[in-house]
Amino acid sequence: xxxxxxxxxxxxxxxxxxVESLNKEIxxxxxxxxxxxxxxxxxxxxxxxAHEVISNIWFDKLSFLNDNTICGFECWFxxxxxxxxxxxxxxxxxxYHDYSEIVPPKxxxxxxxxxxxxxxGGELAINLNGITYFTDxxxxxxxxxxxxxxxxxxxxxxxxxxxxxxxxxxxxxxxCVLDIESGTENDPRVTFTMxxxxxxxxxxx
Length: 205
Ligand SMILES: [Fe+2]
Prior knowledge:
The chain is an alpha+beta fold. The chain has helices at residues 16-27, 49-61, 93-99, 131-135, 146-151, and strands at 7-10, 38-39, 72-80, 83-88, 107-114, 120-121, 124-127, 156-159, 166-170, 175-182, 189-197. It has a 6-stranded antiparallel sheet. Strands 4, 6, 7, 8 and 10 form a 5-stranded antiparallel sheet that branches. The longest helix has 13 residues, at 49-61. The chain is globular, with a radius of gyration of 16 Å. The protein binds fe (ii) ion. Fe (ii) ion is lined by residues 88, 90, 175.
């Protein structure tokens, strides 16, 4: 449907009271992390707030994707005050564990739930060279060199944190989170990642 390296960024995506509730539940660890695999036909906004957000994002805001092959979602939460996330490709972890083969989802989507203020650092950096950049990579801790990544616009796209922002990108793309410098003193950088799959996978807990 889309060529490789597609990227969408949406701001002011959800009603603020929904974002606030999601943020609070993640910070207070009220939701299982990761969530059990959420089958599309079992999505029910009454189950918990994560279902409500998935439903709202994937079957309202992203309905233009019109992708009938999606059968469900693997989802997890992240709450960070410092540091970043090393370079990786989202994939079927169980399959990787068993066969050492990287099988990515169809889409990776990340929603930013807090803080409301801006953050210095903590950008999502997406490499534009496909999965081979990850498999060939000799520098898994490249997130610790934010200036190098930000200058290299030919090979990287860097997206700042913003409250109530949704990013959707090609799951073949290796990505990392650049080290946080400031802005998380009062509230952590909270993300809700939803990967969309065309088959059910076993979620490792
Ligand atoms: Fe990721």
